[in-house]
Write a structure and sequence with these properties.
The chain contains four helices and ten strands; from the N terminus they run βββββααββαβββα. Strands 1, 2, 5, 6, 7 and 8 form a six-stranded mixed beta sheet that branches. It is globular and about 45 Å long.
Length: 159
């Protein structure tokens, strides 16, 4: 899911940066570095588990990725399907309220590299195989997976 918000009449997408380390796989074998560290990804990102529907996955992942406080006022009926490819669906969500409560409600998971606001005019490039291990090292370099770039573009068109 990509969350969109208007601030001072400008439309932004709220994206997450991938962190340096992946804590989701546990720590019993030590700390694992995150693949594509520093790359941008959608606001809420996750995989279907077992027999979950994409909506069930979104309901489970939203509190995990950005916190239960955000999830409490989140309205599933306000979602727009942005892209569908292979086994991934990306939804868009337009937040129409005061930005302050939105940002104060977000609690990122430990593996997140933080949030970034992106405007439509921002240049976002495809992630490349050579970005997998070293990650994205330059703050001004915005890279995402191609399907997420398409979802982002569609979201800017819709909202």
């Amino acid at each position: 899911m990509i969350v969109f918000i208007k601030i001072c009449d400008k439309l932004f997408a709220i994206l997450q940066k991938r962190g340096e380390y992946n804590f989701e796989k546990g720590l019993k074998d030590g700390i694992k570095t995150e693949s594509y560290a520093g790359a941008l990804q959608v606001t809420v990102h996750g995989k279907c588990e077992n027999e979950e529907s994409p909506m069930d996955t979104l309901v489970r992942e939203t509190p995990e990725e950005i916190g239960i406080n955000f999830y409490r006022w989140f309205k599933k009926d306000k979602l727009a399907s942005l892209t569908t490819c292979e086994n991934a669906i990306t939804y868009g969500y337009m937040y129409n309220g005061d930005p302050e409560p939105l940002f104060s409600s977000i609690r990122l998971h430990s593996g997140s590299g933080g949030l970034i606001l992106v405007e439509k005019k921002s240049i976002i490039e495809n992630l490349l195989p050579e970005n997998k291990t070293p990650g994205i090292r330059y703050r001004q370099e915005f890279r995402m997976f191609p399907d997420e770039i398409e979802a982002l573009k569609k979201g800017f068109e819709i909202f």
